[in-house]
Amino acid sequence: MGPDASDLGLVRRVQRGERGAYDLLVLKYQHKVVKLVMRYLRDPADAEDVAQEAFIKAYRALPQFRGDSAFYTWLYRIAINTAKNALAARDRNPVTYDLDVQGNDESTDMVARLKDPETPEGLALTEEIRTTVNAAISELPEDLRTAIVLRELEGMSYEEIAASMDCPVGTVRSRIFRAREAIDRRLREVFDGGLGRAEELV
């Protein structure tokens, strides 16, 4: 029995009135939802609050959950919308992204293209890349930003993102392609200068 099947079993138990089954779902997805919300909100305490709010909303909506999509993609959609609402309520403070290059093959590959990240020049360039990527992501339209965050930082499949964002897979592919193009354009500004530009920053 796969994770989706076991989730659905817990969902059915909650729908039959077994509240303890929801605690198991919260325990299973709490860390992932907090991590996801943190991509929108900079403050860990705020992220915890918003994640809690998302779980409460999901619990209240669970009687209507039919199982057409996986539980966690449905939950992610609620978490994303709750985080967006929290941002809107705070006059849309700028978002920062903590890119963990160790946790992502494509990011690791990008870092491998640096000559030597152990040198001061290499470290400056790595930091410039991080800053450039953060700036590029924060400037993306909301739909592109959400798609690229879920793909590159959460490691979700196109199908999972489509379910979370409530749109066709083709739309997700297009959004991710456009987001990567925008980030690549900004990164070329860094790479074209090579380490010469990084030395100016040391």
Number of helices: 9
Average pLDDT metric: 76
The overall strand count is 0
Instruction: Summarize the biggest pleated sheet.
Output: none
The outline comes out as elongated
- Rg estimate, integer Å: 19 Å
Low-confidence stretches: 98-117, 193-202
Give the class from helix and strand content and strand pairing.
Answer: mainly alpha
Terminal residue distance:
54 Å
Estimated share of beta-strand residues: under 5%
Helix and strand sequence: HHHHHHHHH
- Measured as a percent range, the helix fraction is over 70%
Can you walk through the features of this model?
The chain is mainly α and 202 residues long. Helix content is 75%, strand content 0%. Helix 4 (71-89) crosses helix 8 (158-165), helix 7 (142-153) packs across helix 9 (169-201) and helix 8 packs across helix 9 (169-201). The longest helix is centred in the last third of the chain and has 33 residues, at 169-201.
